[in-house]
Amino acid sequence: MIHIVYMSRAVRPLSDQDLQELLDQCRRDNAARDVTGVLFYSHGNIAQLIEGEAEVLEPLFDVISRDGRHSNVVKLVDKPITERSFADWSMAFHPLEPGGFEALQGFLLPQHLPPPPSSLSIADAMLVDLVKLAVFGADATPAAPEPEHA
Amino acid sequence: MREQQLRDILGHMPAGVATLQGQELRYGFVNEAMRAVLGAAVEEGDAVAEHPGTIPADLLEVMRQVYDAGRPYVAKAYSLPLPATDGGPSTPRYFDIALEPVREGNGPVSGLLLFAVDVTVQEEARQRAHHLSIETRRLDTRLRVLTETVPQITFTVDAAGKFEYVSPQWYYFTGQPPTADLNAIWPLLIHPDDRLRVLYQADTARTSGVGWSYEYRLRRHDGQYRWMLSRALPELHAPDQAVFWHGALTEVHDQRELADALRRGEAELRFLADSIPELIWTATAEGFIDYYNHYTGEYSGLTKEELGPTGWINLLEPSEQAGAARRWVQSIATGQPYEGLFRMRRHDGRYRWHIIRARQLTDERGPRWFGTCTDVDDQYRLREVLQTQYDELARTNRDLDTFVYTASHDLKQPVLNLRGLFDELRRTATFNDPEEGEIIGMVDEALGQLDATLQDLAATVQEQRGLSAPVEALDLRSVADEVLLGLRAQVQESEATVSLDFAAAPTLTYGRANLRSILHNLLSNALKFADPARPLHLQVRSFLSEAGQPVLTVQDNGLGMELPGRPAPVFQPFARQHPHIAGAGVGMYLVQRIVASRGGHLEVSSTVGEGTTFTIHWFED
C-alpha cells in the first residue's frame, strides 16, 4: 500500500456545486477501487492525499494529473505505508453557503479538521499540516488541536 | 404566326428588348423586361424624348448619336435608378446597354435596337472586389509600417530556406548594404560556434514543417556578436504543406547576459553550499524542502528523494520530532525564524547535537526559506564536561576554603598553648648562653608570625566565604531548595527522590554559609554514595528535641558504612570511607567542625547495604 500527496491549482474557481459533485465523485469512484484519502480546497488551491494499492494509485494519479480542471500538479510524496490513515473518504473546503454542507457526509469545515491521525509518521503528519496551511492559510490551522475535536 | 412566336420569345426574355423607330426614336416593340427597366408605362409610338421613363438625358443623347452615326455602341455597367417596387427609395441597378442601329436592307438607319441586360450582381461583386483590394493595400501598408518600425527584424523564408523578405532593420543591425545577397551573407554573420547548430535547426524545422525558436549570436554592424532569439511559424497552404516561414529576430543579449550571470551566481552559490561541511537546505514558501546540499546527503546517508520534502524530521531524535515539527509548521504560518537545538542522526546511527536555524527570505520571487544545521556536538559535550568539572572544582574549592578556615581555627588553640608554655618556660628556665637568648627571641618571633598567619588565613577565608557571617533566622526549605538546585545534575543522574519535611521546625537561627555548607556536604555525600542496586531515596527532616532544641536528620538508603562503634565518630580529614568514589575527603570533617564550632554535635548511624542517617544537633540540649 502507498500514499500520494499532491498540490495543484484549479483552472477556474470551483462552485459549491462543483465541490459537492467532486466529493460525490471521489466517494463513489474511490470506494469502488478501495482508495481512501482527504481533499482540501480553498480559493483555487487544491491538495489531496490518496492511499491505496500501488497498482491502483499510480494509474489513478496519472489520470488526476491530466485532469483539465486543475494545473500545476506537484507531487510531494509517493511512498509505501503500512496502514490507512483516512479510512473514511473526506474533504474540507470553505463553501460559499456553509449551511448546506454541515450535514454532508465526509465534509468538514477547515477549522473543524482534526489533527493528522497518529497512524501517520511525524514527517507525513507535518506534511499534511503544511499542505493544510498552504491551502487554507494560517487562520484555519490552529496551533494546538481544539479540544472538542481532539 | 412566326412573327407571333418571335414576339413571345422576345417578350419572355430576361433581358430588356425594345425597338426605337425613326428619327424621333419612337417605341416599337417593348418586351416585359424592358418595360420593367423603363418603369413608366410606354405605348408603341411614344417618342423616347417625351416618355424617357428611367432613361437619363445622357443616354438619350448617346441614342441619338448612334442613330446618326449608324455605329453600334455598348455601355457597360450603366447605372439606372430603378424605382423600388414597394415604394421605398430607388436603388441603383446596373445594366449593359447595347444600342444597335437598324437598317432596312442597305438603306439608311431607320431605327435602333435597344438591349438592357441586368448586370447588377456582377457589378456589385466587382465593386466589392475593388474595395477589398483597396483594403488589402491599406492593410499591407500598415503591416509594412509596423514591421519596419518594430525593433525586431522580421523575415520570410521559403521552403527551400531562401529569404523572401527581411525588414530594413536587418540592414541597420548588420550594417550590410541593401544590395547584399541575404542568403549568402546571413549565415556568415552568425557566430561560428552557433552557425552549424542554427543551420541544422532551421533545416530540420523546415523539413518537418514546424515553427522554430532558438537563440544564436549575430554579428552587429560594429563587429560585436549579440544574442538573438529567432522565432518563426510556418504558413500552411495545405494542412501539412508549409510554403513560407514568417518570423522575427529579437535581440535578447542583455537578458541573456543577465540570465547567464544569474545562472553563474546560482551555480557558484550552490557550489559554495555543497562545499561547506554543514547541512544546508532551502524550502518553499509552503515549508517543503526543495534543496539539500551535498553534505546533508553525506551526513545522513540518505538521498534527496529519501529525505523528501519533510523527511528531515526523521533524522531527529524520536522524542524531539513532534515538537520540532510543530514549531516548523508554526514558523511557516507566521514567518518567524526557526531555531532549535536537536540531536540529528548520522549515517552510522549516532546522534549528534545540532543547532537548526532557518530564516525566511521575501523578495519579488515570493517567500523562500534558507536553513542550516550546525554540528555543535563537540562543543555541547565539552560544555557538559566542563560544567561538571567546574561544579566539582567549585565544590572542592569551597571545601578547601572551609578546611583552611577550620584548620586555622583549630590550630589557634595549640599555638595559644604553645605560646603560654613557652612564656612559662622563659620565665622559669635560665639560659646561660647569650646565643640562647637570641634563639628565644627568634622562637618568640616565629610564634608571633605563626599566630598572625593563622589569624590572617582565617580572616581571609571568613571574608571570602562569609563563614563568619552573623547568624540569622533561616528558612530551612529555601536553603535546602537552593542547595538541591546546585545539585540537580547529580539528582537527575542518580534518579533520586528527595523528600523534605521541615514542618516541625521550619526555621533555624544559624550562619547562612555554614548551613549551606553542611546541607551541601550531607546531600552530595548521600548522592555520591547511592547504592546502584536501587533508586536513591533521601529524606531530610527537621524537628525539635525533647529539650526544645532544633535537630536535623538526613537519611538515605545508600551504600552505608562501617562505623568504629561510636555513635558520634570523629571524622578525620582526608579519611575516606569509600576510596573508589571521587572526593577530597574533607567534607564530613568540615561538617563536624562547623557544627562543633557553633556549639552542636553530629551523630551518625549506618548499616552497610541499607543506608546511613546523619543527625545534627544544632545546639547542645
UniProtKB/TrEMBL annotation, chain A:
The record's annotation in SUPFAM superfamilies points to: Acylphosphatase/BLUF domain-like (SSF54975)
Record-annotated membrane-spanning stretches: none
At the top level of its lineage, which domain of life is listed? Bacteria
Annotated BLUF domain ranges read: 1-92
**Full protein name:** BLUF domain-containing protein
Q: Which organism is it from?
A: Hymenobacter mellowenesis
One Pfam family name is BLUF
Automatic annotation (TrEMBL), chain B:
Q: Which CDD domains match?
A: HisKA (cd00082), PAS (cd00130)
Q: Where is the PAC domain?
A: 212-264, 338-388
This protein's record includes keyword Kinase? yes
Q: Which UniProt keywords apply?
A: Kinase, Phosphoprotein, Transferase
InterPro entries, per database record: HATPase_C_sf, HATPase_dom, His_kinase_dom, HisK_dim/P_dom, HisK_dim/P_sf, PAC, PAS, PAS-assoc_C
Organism domain of life: Bacteria
Instruction: Write down the SMART domains for this protein, in alphabetical order.
Output: HATPase_c (SM00387), PAC (SM00086), PAS (SM00091)
Cross-referenced Gene3D superfamilies, in alphabetical order? Answer: 1.10.287.130, Histidine kinase-like ATPase, C-terminal domain (3.30.565.10), PAS domain (3.30.450.20)
Enzymatic reactions:
ATP + protein L-histidine = ADP + protein N-phospho-L-histidine
Report the enzyme's class at the first EC level: transferase
Write down a Pfam family by its short name: PAS_3
**GO molecular function term, any single one:** kinase activity
| Domain PAS stretches | 265-307
Q: Which residues form the Histidine kinase domain?
A: 406-621
Q: What is its EC number?
A: 2.7.13.3
Q: What is this protein called?
A: histidine kinase
